[in-house]
Amino acid sequence: MFENSTNNLQENYLKKDKKDKILLVLLPFWTPLIPPLGISCIKSYLQGHGYPVTAVDANSDPELWEEYYNYTGALKKFIPESKRGNFYNIAHNILRNHSMAYLNRRDESEYRELIKAIIARDYFCEITDAQVYELDNILETFYAKLKEYIYQLLEKQKPAVVGISVFSGSLPASIFAFKLIKEHSQHIKTVMGGGVFADQLAVSSPGFKEFVNKAPYIDKIIAGEGEVLFLKYLQGELPETQKVYTLQDNNNEYLDFSTVDIPDFSDFDIQDYPQLSTYVSRSCVYQCRFCSETVSWGKFRKKEIKQAVDEFVKLYKKHGCQLFLLGDSMLNPFIAELSDELIKRDLSFYWDGYLRADKHVCSYENTIKWRRAGFYRARLGVESGSQRVLNLMDKRITPEQIKAAVSSLAHAGIKTTTYWVIGYPGESEEDFQETLDLIKELKEDIWEAECNKFWYFPSAQTGSDKWAKEDGVDLLYPKKLSDMLMVQTWIVNAEPSREVIHDRVCRFTEHCRKLGIPNTYTLRDVYFADDRWKKLHKNAVPLITEFKNKRVFVDENKRIIV
Questions:
Q1: Distance from CA of residue 483 to its chain's centroid?
Q2: DSSP state, residue 271
């Protein structure tokens, strides 16, 4: 008896000491500019606590992306040129909803009705049954390829736990994968996290509970910052009977940045991506009404700048890449400090990130210093050329600031990507015309202009409750068919109407085309935009192609002309 007890104790100890093999995955479709930062950070953190982790970027697989190009190519044929607008952004939304409905279709007549409604309410044109079937055939091929991909992955890795990082565009493929994993091996624990919980599936949104109930193949959901919660789940420190874990399950304590190592990209072929990625901060110090960053991440936090620059150095030494896309919500709170540290250490790294058109961005003295520190591309959420709309958004900037900021960055040679929101509740025709006028005035200082329709997310934006109370909200697609979508799309019952918004998007894209301002979707587009920029600005940053050859070190930032 004593011997049996000793054996049981030894067996339990070995089980406790043994670490489960973890597989972290990102699925299509999401812009594959960088190796996936989220799962790379979680991999690094879990491995630091002794867990064997493999990260897989299925989103960069060319075989799967072939079907994306087939789908968007077919869809483009069905949409009149005058209705295409910002085609690929809208097509991404169509593909997401069509892919989800395809997985959940039951009645063929209702299914076709839904797909036609999705296209009619996004592009404002009609398609035929035959055209729906053509798109269906592409989705059938995509899911067949994805099924084979997932099965091969499971056979090769044999994981105990699979975590999938999910964004709105990758939600259908992720749902498909979760179901397959459970069909393949019931014992594998499935965990869902990712950016989708910052917008469409915010925990407090009306559809979240219904989604959770409809997804028995997902064992656990981690909403928000994932490193500590994932570790606590693996260590058995979170309630097993609970399916959804949030920051509250960690006593509202955030990740201590001083305890983290660099993101672990070792499972990826870095040659597949034009840029690497890292981050300096999480959340945002601002409260724009349409944005979900502070709702998702909570309070703003940043690393010590010396630590952040040390991580640049480590990543360069490990992967040989000089060009980084920073995953921060906003660079403004630390851009001056980061630039000072890089210049002081005489380093040549190039970095790209999101910037707000604040007053300090309007200073040529500042932008030249940032350029010398390697600032490569500023992604500016300028949103509108109308002061009235900017006030409605609580942006706390002016059109004059936007002009000064964009021009100051451009004159320093820094690429300027400008993002514009079309159809913010209350936007008038006069407001929209002011946006077009501002773009025309800035045409030579804008590297790229991208517009998006205003999207409403119940409870995921700082202004969500106010819109619901003052204007009322409704479903964009037919309520009776909602089960096929799993996640609903909501709209605000305010002017301008969705059809007017779409018309303005079409006018915006045509306006930019006539002005010669690019909107990049492919590397070929980037090459064209870079060549144009080089001709316009004497201090233009290097072409993206100059970073391809890792044997050539780029340090032209040290020779900027004032």
A1: 25
A2: G
Buried b (16+ CB within 10 A) or exposed e, 96-123: bbbbbbbbeeeeeeebbebbbebbebbb
- Domain with 395 in it: 322-454+522-559
Rounded to 5 degrees, φ, ψ at 490 are -110, 155
Domain count for the chain: 1
Length of the chain: 562
For residue 216, how many other CB atoms are within 10 A of its CB? 11
Degrees, nearest 5: CA angle 557-284-413 = 20
d(CA 448, CA 450): 7
Give the model's pLDDT for residue 467: 83
Give residue-wise pLDDT tens across range 198-234: 877 888 888 898 899 999 999 999 998 899 999 999 9
The tokens describing 360, both together, are 């300090």
Name the 3-class secondary structure at 110: helix
473 inside domain: no
Residue 284 domain-assigned (yes or no): no
* Distance between CA atoms of residues 477 and 559, nearest Å: 55
DSSP 488: -
Q: Are 55 and 488 in contact (CB under 8 A)?
A: no
pLDDT at position 451, please? Answer: 96
Amino acid making up residue 299? K
Residue 78 sits at φ, ψ, to 5 deg, of -85, -15
- Cβ partners under 8 Å of residue 465, min gap 6: 459
Question: At residue 500, what are phi and psi to the nearest 5 degrees?
Answer: -65, -40
With the C-alpha atoms ordered 341, 344, 345, 351, is the resulting torsion angle positive or negative? positive
Residues contacting 510, CB < 8 A, separation 6+: none
DSSP per residue, 447-465: SEEEEEE--B-TTTSTTHH
Angle at 78 between CA 485 and CA 125, to 5 degrees: 70
pLDDT tens digits for range 434-454: 999 999 999 999 999 999 999
553 belongs to a structural domain: yes
Give this prediction's pTM.
0.92
pLDDT of residue 201: 87
Q: What is the pLDDT of residue 192?
A: 98
Sign of CA dihedral 459, 464, 466, 469: negative
Strand ordering across the sheet containing 448-453: 276-278, 323-326, 350-355, 375-383, 415-422, 448-453
User: Would you tell me how many other CB atoms lie within 10 Å of the CB of residue 273?
Assistant: 21
Q: Domain containing 343 — which CATH number?
A: 3.30.750.200
460 pLDDT above the threshold of 70: no
Q: DSSP of 94-116, one letter per residue?
A: HHHHHHHHHHH--SHHHHHHHHH
Those residues whose C-beta lies under 8 Å from the C-beta of residue 218, and which sit 6 or more positions away, are 178, 190, 191, 192, 212, 243
Q: Are 504 and 511 in contact (CB under 8 A)?
A: no
**Structural domain includes residue 349:** yes
Q: Which residues contact 145 (CB under 8 A, 6 or more apart)?
A: 63, 64, 67
218-238 CB burial, b ≥16 within 10 A, e <16: bbbbbbbbbbbbbbebbeeeb
